[in-house]
Fold each of these.
Amino acid sequence: MFVESIKAGGAYGDLKKTVTINILDFTYLNTARFHSSFHLYEDFDKTVMLTDVIEIHFIEYPKFRRSRKDFHNPLHRWLLFLDEKLPENQLEELMSMDPVIKKAEERLEWLSGDEDTLRLYEAREFSRYERNSIIADAKEEGRKEIARKLLALEVDLQKIAEATGLSEEEIKKL
């Protein structure tokens, strides 16, 4: 995303600010806080920022679940909204406090009730699974093709296994 914000031959000064938000359902960082943000600073002098055009956020849901919730904090409200186990009365409270959350909930309800939209979503998901399967199959076939060529060059089975990730039994069947 960051590099794609300028055209080939463009100046670095034209790079657009890029913010990534990583919402994790596992603990990743060795910090107490559930929300951590990172920027590019000089290693020895943390007062010197290289650039402010990259910002990386991590939100660790297990830590958030253990924290005290503050309905007056917009981030807490959104994270609660994203929790599929949120009780209906709390959802109502969030929607009454935040019109944007209310609009998001209404849009989600509309999307889940519209058969054509649901069908498009399912087709897109199936396409994604199919693409991943085709890629995995192609990688496997490529590894086997490399193994066949190495076998033809009389390379040791163990070395072929190391190079391709195939077991020696799989290589023998080729």
Note: The CA atoms of residues 23 and 173 lie 44 Å apart.
Amino acid sequence: MTETLEEFLVARRGTGRPLLVPYVTAGVTPGWTDVVHAYADAGADAVELGFPFSDPMLDGVTIQEASDRAIAAGTTVRGILDEVATLDVGVPLVAMTYSNLVMRHGTAEFCAALTASGLRGLIVPDSPLEEAGELADAAAAVGLDLVLLAAPSSSRARLREIAERSRGFVYAVTRMGTTGEGGEIPGQAARLGRELKGLTDRPVLFGFGVSDPAQAAELAGHADGVVVASALMRKLLDGARPRELGEYVASIRRALE
């Protein structure tokens, strides 16, 4: 795939398609790459791959459990990248991890390794905007889109800076706190989506707490699409097979359209 993550998503959006990015924790099961294939076959526009970390501060109990399971199984960054390099699913793959893991491997080296394996985007949710310069430069140098998060509590000036500096898409957080299923979508989420859409033509996707197809459709009405993570990982941890996860992603796709 020669297109950047952003170019791919903008082209998909240009067809009138709401964007859907499902998540899987890499290494959570021996056949986790089958989940990626199932997502792509079900209509995903990109797939977010969580690189397991022992202290995922922004993740709720579900993704923490998935991360712990992957670590217990011996999952490593090198192992994930080797498996990713064999994937050809027709949509961009986006890494999600934490600053500690990036710095441990060296910022430039980590970004280069992601690109070499075929990844097109990177999300590091605990990297503050004020300290993201080195990471952004390293990512840009190897054609990796660094996706930044925008919170409902951010000032308009900060949102403007996030929208300008983010690449790939802007990750709009529906609520303050950690990831996880359940709960009503707060009204501030809709306002955040509308504000970001007024600040950038870059795709805006909502994440955190997108629990079911109806919520996905509601949120997509205020932005360009959604990221779905904990709801899928809960199903996987409860024993759902790749085919069943794909069917659930397909149900979200139908709701979006």
Note: Strands lie at 19-25, 47-50, 93-96, 121-123, 145-150, 170-173, 204-207, 225-228.
Amino acid sequence: MSDAQVESAGPLAGKRIMVTRARSQVWELVEKIEGLGGEAYAFPLLKMVAPEDKRHLDEAIAQLGKFDWLIFTSVNGVRFFLERMNEIGVGIDAIKGQVAAVGPKTAAVLNDEGLEVAVIPSDYVAEGLLTSLHDRLSPGQRVLLPRADIARKALPQELAALGLEVTEVDVYHTVIDGKQAPEAARRLRDKEIDGILFTSSSTVTHFVQAMAPFAGTGWLDQVQIACIGPITAETARQNGLTVHVTATEYTVEGLLEALIDNLGGKDNGTNI
């Protein structure tokens, strides 16, 4: 059986899915969709760039030994933080406190770099991380949060309310990359897309911004919108989008499983 025949038999056979992740991450999801028999259209909306002003980040890195907790809420946060440590000549052994990660992929990147992760929540969102950390935190402890410039404030606010001293530093900025917007809009207008995947609230807001010059009445009526979790889904609704699919496990794999349940055919045994 040819590769094309194998793909055509997958649970997403005949479905055309738009993927709106960051340019550095979009191809992982594209490959998974194609492996499930679907046709993926990559519409990378985001670019991650290092902040121009790194003074606060460098100050935090210089004081790493004073933090009781180092909490990472994304793979990108890990990568940009460790890259900056390397750039200014600070080694991993400078991290003295315990490390927490919002999910297994973030934890895996930390493990690959030789860091032991003390806490991974069962719900891969900031609220789940807070619940998992709660009994291990003590008032007065110092917490470092290396994050994106647009990260939600729920986690630092809740940590501060528990009496912890929280330091937030921007390790990367998320900027819109709308070069493909006209082509993406044409595909949507010509009904060439069956579903759109959103993997974060920022992909939703950037999608809406990029599509604003092209959007029309009923332009998404034929499209199933799938979100990686309830926070992303709520952002989509707040931006006027109808959400058809929300993953119950807040991972790429969970999102694809939910998409198959709602949009694809019967599972033919293909592993996600």
Note: The first helix runs from residue 3 to 8.
Amino acid sequence: MTDWRTYQAPADVLAGRVILVTGAGQGLGAAAALAYAQHGATVILLGRNEKKLARTYDAIEAAGGPQPAAIPMDLAKISEAEIAQLGITIRKEFGRLDGILHAANGFTFLSPLTNQKLDEWVEMFKVNVAAPFAINRGLLPLLTQAPDAAIIHLGESHALNPAAYWGGYSVSKAGQKNLVEIAASEWDNQPNLRINLLVPGPIQSPFRLATHPAESAESLPRTEAIVPALLYWMSAASQGQSGRTLEFAAA
């Protein structure tokens, strides 16, 4: 059986596919977008920071990937109307959608529960769970028309192992597991569509730097180490596997 953590993807494994990547401006989202493009996909870059999206866009073009698209959008403020328009735009410009990687990450800061505020919790729940749910639902008609479609939610290890001071972030990320399992169960009559939760664990990223500033980056796997897993779960190699929670660092 193929080890998804060390999957050796064929160069054209995603050729002809259109993939939406949220949080594509930096970290794991940017690394995934570049890898998907290098393996043949047309990537739609979504994020709230236009300059960061532009850097990812330029990196894809410099690497010779298919011309991407960039859509500035803040998941903390996204509306039903914007999601509907996103679907219309993708259908009009690309005619298809074969996958979504939810890499956008809603996080404020570490603090005790007594210091956390309602609006902070609401924002983290919207970015980490509610907006991805609504995007999946809004783009489902396009995904179900694809011969092989995949949705990946990037999780966080503190959702599976809650600890002090992770508060609303941990609780909101814990909701991803239920969302993925419910969706997989409801879509079990659509074998062309799968959804899974991939938990990177400790890995070099801007988020890890923000939460563990004293940690030596050299002690962690490089961001690119997770690329084989991101390719495996987005490509046809993972057909028939849905509703799973996958811990990358548990190798």
Note: The chain has eight helices and seven strands.
